[in-house]
Amino acid sequence: MTKPRLATLAIIVAALAVIAFAGLSGALLNLMIFMMIIALAAQGWNILGGYAGLSSFGHAAFFGAGAYAMAVLQTRFGVNAWIALVIGIALGALVGAFIGFLSFRSGLKGSYFALITLAFAEVARILANSWNFTGGAAGILLKLQTGLPYLQFADRRYFLLITIGCVAIGLVVSWWLEHSRFGAYLVALRENEQAAQALGVDVFAVKMKAIAISGALTAAAGCLYAQNYLFIDANVAFGSWISIEALFAAIVGGSGTVLGPLIGAIVLLGLGELTKGLSGGIPGMDLLVFGIILVLSVAFSPNGLVMLMKSLGLRAPAKAKEA
Amino acid sequence: MYSPQIVVEALLNGLMLGAIYALIALGLTLIYGVLHIVNFAHGALLTVAMFMVWLVCARYGLDPYLAILVVAPLMFALGYGLQRFIIGPASHGKDNGILLVTLGLSIIIENALLAAFQSDTRTITTDYSFRVVELGPLLLSFPRVVGFGVTIATTILLWLVLHQTDIGKAIRAVAKEKLGASLVGISVPHVYAMTFAIGCACLAVAAGLLMPSFYVSPKTGAAFVLVAFTIVVLGGMGSIPGALIGGLLIGVVEAASSLFLGDSLGQIGIFLIFIVTLLVRPTGLFGARA
User: Fold this and answer.
1) A17 falls within a domain
2) Prediction ipTM score
3) Which stretches are transmembrane (chain B) (predicted)?
4) What residue of B is the nearest CA neighbor of A137?
5) Closest by Cα among A93, A83, A110 to B32
6) Which residue among A57, A102, A291 sits closest to B108, beta carbon to beta carbon?
7) Is there a contact between A196 and A203 (Cβ–Cβ < 8 Å)?
8) Which residue range forms the structural domain that includes residue A143?
9) What is the number of structural domains in chain A?
10) DSSP codes joined into one string, A93-142
11) Residue-range domain boundaries for chain B
């Protein structure tokens, strides 16, 4: 398996930035911002679900933690947006550590881990929905204040740049995983936990670190979501939709790969928009397509689009030689 | 504080709703016990069954309880086909694959229903929907009393099928020792599909019992799925008596917590039980030690 080089990642990020300033229409800019937010959430999911093999069905817990930190800190305490962003990301890591501490200490994995993460996200959703501090069922509206200090821009291209920057950080984190001892531990854990433990890997510590990083990245996506749409409520921030989209994007793109989540998010949301357009606004058609793609990709390309492209790319020259 | 009568009534009604929960969980736990998979599409399949009951009743004026006789074979066939031709082949027998394929299926089903029926909620009103049964000084909801009785009957029937019929024996053999079962000539994919089919037929019964007093929308099943998982985990994954007792218990807990905490916060009791069970005793009350 060839790993992408840092230079390749830099080119991809630069290309995204160029596209951002290529005169996209407002709707396309919004779509691209949304793609980047989902890509970032999926990158977070990928650290835990892809590299460490611990599939979470409840990454909404982290996304919501970030989104609510961003909204509550700014509206209730007048905290600066950038500081709120940092606190939100830290909170995501903390929530990750909390859920991780409880679940990994009990040795949960596989479907049990998927179920408990789902339950944690649901508890968070119910709490946020009924607690006045978090705005209850009405949600929280953020104030519109444009300018760099407020992390809101009259020109949406600048916000898109910020999201691209965050995705770039996510890419670097994944790249670092593939080149570090820690990343090797994660993969060892995924392939055979007992063997990894027998070889002296501190399984619990490695998992804790992974879920904290994973939570932090997905929380960053939540922060950006709140800041972009300026409104959140419990069903948006902690709803199962985001757990599902983060998982889908990572798996369809290629779980356990550097570029998988980004490619998955772009392909999925792109296709989603396309079906929405083609089906003339029949509700649910885009998600229907997502579901079909997920089943098809598990059935026919379990390693995701990244690997599919690679294997096609490897096969093509071989055929050329024969001819 | 509430008067004792209100509390007892609420708890008893909760107990009987719990019976229907148990029926939903029964299919889930059976599928887990034999296939060792967590079927995430279970909630969506319940929605399908409820829509089928609704269609049969609204179109042909059949009684929802009688509709079970029509819908159960349909769900049985659907379940068989899904496992045999989609879930089995697509997941390559991998745990994670199954988890994702059933999750994908649940999203496909939910949104196909959304596209076909929009998100409106639909109900069936029967002349007994709001009837109450007097039990001494207590007033109990008639549909729930029926649900309770039918659940017990279905559980007994399921137990008999598993213990007295050939297919039941095959199912238990596969659950215990897959390789051994296939060596003595049992077709494992067929048994898997039959188990999945029986689980889906249980959902048809649950759907028929729910419809007179409940509504259906494409998202209805999602509301039940976590409750069903809680019951399965609490009762012990794969344990049929566990599912029955777990279901009754969860029904009571839900009734008590929504009585004392209010409807929106009431659901939290279930999830806390779920989390605590997973953390403290993931094998559940009746599950075998892993």
Assistant:
1) yes
2) 0.82
3) 12-34, 40-58, 65-86, 98-117, 138-162, 191-211, 223-253, 259-280
4) B264
5) A110
6) A291
7) yes
8) 6-322
9) 1
10) HHHHHHHHHHHHHTT--HHHHHHHHHHHHHHHHHHHHH-GGGTGGG-EEP
11) 18-220
Q: Which of B90, B99, B265 sits opposite A126 (nearest CB)?
A: B265
Q: Which two tokens stand for residue A111?
A: 């479907």
Most B CBs within 10 A among A120, A294, A296, A301, hence the mutation to make, goes to A294
Find out whether B173 and B188 touch, Cβ atoms under 8 Å: no
Closest Cα in chain B to A280: B115
A159 in a structural domain: yes
Q: How far apart are CA A218 and CA A62, in angstroms?
A: 6
In a domain, A1, yes or no: no
- Residue A196 half-sphere exposure toward CB, CA atoms < 13 A: 21
Closest-CA residue in chain B for A289?
A: B108
Write out the two tokens for A234: 């419990």
pLDDT in tens, chain A (323 residues): 457 788 889 999 999 999 888 878 888 999 999 999 999 999 999 999 999 989 899 999 999 999 999 999 999 898 899 999 999 999 999 999 999 999 998 888 888 898 899 999 999 998 998 888 888 888 888 888 888 888 888 888 899 999 999 999 999 999 999 999 999 999 998 888 889 888 888 999 999 999 999 999 999 999 999 999 999 999 999 988 899 999 989 988 988 899 999 999 999 999 888 888 887 777 788 888 888 988 888 888 777 777 777 777 655 544 444 43
Measured CA to CA, the distance from residue A290 to residue A116 in angstroms comes to 24
Residue A235 in any domain: the answer is: yes
Rounded to the nearest angstrom, the minimum Cα separation between A169 and chain B is 28
| CB B235 within 8 Å of CB B248 | no
